[in-house]
From TrEMBL:
<protein>
    <recommendedName>
        <fullName>RNI-like protein</fullName>
    </recommendedName>
</protein>
<keyword id="KW-0433">Leucine-rich repeat</keyword>
<keyword id="KW-0343">GTPase activation</keyword>
<dbReference type="GO" id="GO:0005829">
    <property type="term" value="C:cytosol"/>
</dbReference>
<feature type="region of interest" description="Disordered">
    <location>
        <begin position="472"/>
        <end position="496"/>
    </location>
</feature>
<dbReference type="GO" id="GO:0031267">
    <property type="term" value="F:small GTPase binding"/>
</dbReference>
<keyword id="KW-0677">Repeat</keyword>
<dbReference type="GO" id="GO:0048471">
    <property type="term" value="C:perinuclear region of cytoplasm"/>
</dbReference>
<dbReference type="GO" id="GO:0005096">
    <property type="term" value="F:GTPase activator activity"/>
</dbReference>
<dbReference type="GO" id="GO:0005634">
    <property type="term" value="C:nucleus"/>
</dbReference>
<dbReference type="InterPro" id="IPR027038">
    <property type="entry name" value="RanGap"/>
</dbReference>
<feature type="coiled-coil region">
    <location>
        <begin position="290"/>
        <end position="322"/>
    </location>
</feature>
<feature type="compositionally biased region" description="Polar residues">
    <location>
        <begin position="472"/>
        <end position="483"/>
    </location>
</feature>
<dbReference type="InterPro" id="IPR001611">
    <property type="entry name" value="Leu-rich_rpt"/>
</dbReference>
<keyword id="KW-0175">Coiled coil</keyword>
<dbReference type="Pfam" id="PF13516">
    <property type="entry name" value="LRR_6"/>
</dbReference>
<dbReference type="GO" id="GO:0006913">
    <property type="term" value="P:nucleocytoplasmic transport"/>
</dbReference>
Length: 515
């Protein structure tokens, strides 16, 4: 089943309800709505339809004292009453444990088979005494198809007992997060004191954020990260096949040390981590007990220059703002070009016939200096005709579209070194320097997307579900407010963002890319 089958319209649910009226229904016992009365299938469909339209979207069980599988039943019952819920919070003073999480995941899968919980996007299991066993279960049942397409975008696992000490677990979790089928954008493992540098680095070895992955935020604050993770983490952020597409990294309250923080910041300042928009690294000063990391810190400091040590925090803030600018330019340029390309290549357009003879006569009259009305004659000859763009060779059409990107060029993108370069940023060029916000690879991906009828069909399905496709009148700067600073992309709840997110990710234009 396609990942877009989850875009269900109320009309579709209503049609299922009407079909159920004329077909034999299965009776079941429910404690919702009518006590313990027995419902038929039509009653259930009607109850589900009303819940999808009006029931709670956020199920909050903060400090409810839910424990084990028995506590899970309360959550599943509430989800049955609100099948369109998008968020479940089970944080603080709950104690589901590994057995409770197992029961919760099994129940979610059973409900999903009936269309209940298909809109779940956020799950908060903070403070539930979970171990690596729960992490494996979550990766297996929520982060990859099993068998339904995963919908979870935000997963908060703060204040548990995860350690990521098993290589098999980190390999499996990294593969699940790197898979194009995973919808997860934010993973928070803050305040898991059992996670050490070895666990994080083992995960990063298998975490490959390619063009099709959606993971954008990692939270590892208040863990046991030490200076030996600084260099591998920085190299992972710089690696185009690793974490170069990560947008938010939180590592507050660890023991990485100032030298380690400067090494991570240098990846952003140099432009090699060109997608990182937000970096939190407060309270990482080393303690007196860190004498064992003296050699590591000395090795990090040996690679620094005097410039790297002075004013690095201020330059880091400037670099993050620069990353935000080029990301916004990339997204807007892609959406603007897509509107033109879809009409030219994907919509079987037609243009009016051009009277070549009238154009020729107008040019001849313009060359006749004795005729003072020549310019007016030429203008009137061309006023009712369009330039025959579609009759140009395909190479010229592509070249014209490529040049159209420079109508609104980027003055920031040229500051980033190509991926093949190992040097730092070049000195700032002239402000008049022009640069396309899209790489050639992204540009060609956009044209291929526009020429595909299958992608047009998917866009129409997303539009029908509420993710509105922009009109051509807004093609050059559509929905600039949908780009949010914190997430670096369109907000998942913003109108029209479903179309934006899918198109930009499909064409690999959801991130700024160095040429």
């Amino acid at each position: 089943m396609s990942s877009f089958d989850r875009f269900r319209t109320p009309g579709g649910d209503l049609a299922s309800f009407f079909r159920s009226i004329v077909t034999p229904g299965h009776r079941y016992s429910s404690s919702q709505g009518r006590g313990h009365a027995s419902f038929d299938q039509a009653d259930y469909e009607w109850e589900q339809l009303r819940a999808n339209q009006a029931a709670a979207k956020h199920l909050d069980f903060f400090a409810h004292g839910l424990a084990g599988p028995r506590g899970t039943k309360v959550v599943l019952q509430a989800l049955r009453a609100s099948p369109g819920a998008t968020s479940i919070s089970l944080q603080s003073q709950n104690d589901l444990g590994d057995n409770g999480v197992r029961a919760l995941l099994v129940g979610l899968k059973q409900l999903r088979a009936r269309g209940v919980g298909a809109s779940l996007q956020e799950l908060n299991l903070s403070g539930n005494h979970l171990t690596d066993v729960s992490m494996h279960l979550i990766a297996l049942h929520l982060l990859q198809p099993s068998p339904h397409p995963p919908t979870l975008t935000h997963l908060y696992l703060t204040a548990n007992s995860f350690s990521l000490s098993s290589p098999e677990l980190t390999e499996f979790l990294g593969a699940a997060l790197s898979s194009p089928s995973s919808a997860l954008r934010c993973l928070s493992l803050t305040n898991n004191m059992a996670i050490k540098s070895t666990g994080l680095l083992s995960l990063l070895q298998h975490l490959k954020l390619g063009p099709s992955t959606q993971l954008a935020q990692l939270h590892f604050s208040l863990c046991e990260l030490t200076p030996n993770c600084a260099e591998p983490l920085a190299r992972w952020l710089e690696d185009p096949d690793g974490g170069a597409r990560l947008q938010v990294l939180c590592i507050n309250g660890n023991s990485i040390g100032v030298a380690g923080l400067r090494r991570i910041a240098r990846s952003v300042i140099s432009g090699k981590a060109s997608s990182l928009l937000h970096l939190e690294s407060h309270a990482n000063e080393p303690t007196e007990e860190q004498e064992e990391w003296k050699e590591v810190n000395e090795a990090l400091e040996a690679e620094e220059t005097e410039e790297d040590r002075e004013g690095w925090k201020e330059r880091l803030e400037v670099a993050k703002e620069r990353n935000k600018v080029v990301l916004k330019e990339t997204r807007l340029a892609a959406l603007g070009l897509l509107a033109k390309g879809r009409v030219l290549f994907g919509g079987n357009p037609r243009e009016p016939e051009v009277d070549a003879g009238a154009i020729r006569r107008g040019v001849e009259e313009l060359d006749t200096r004795e005729n003072p009305y020549a310019p007016k004659t030429l203008s009137s000859s061309l006023s009712s005709s369009a330039f025959p763009f579609l009759r140009l060779p395909i190479e010229l059409q592509v070249h014209v579209l490529r040049c159209s990107l420079l109508l609104k060029p980027s003055q920031t993108a040229h500051l980033y070194q190509p991926i093949s370069s190992t040097s730092s940023l070049l000195p700032p060029l002239s402000p008049s320097t022009l640069s396309s916000p899209l790489t050639e690879h992204q540009f060609l991906n956009l044209l291929a997307h526009c020429a595909s009828s299958s992608t047009l069909g998917i866009e129409m399905r997303i539009a029908a579900a509420g993710g509105r496709v922009p009109s051509l009148k807004q093609s050059t700067g559509w929905r600039q407010d949908s780009w949010t600073e914190a997430g670096g992309g369109a907000s998942g709840s913003a109108s029209g963002s479903a179309w934006e997110d899918w198109v930009l990710r499909k064409t690999e234009c959801d991130r700024f890319a160095r040429g």
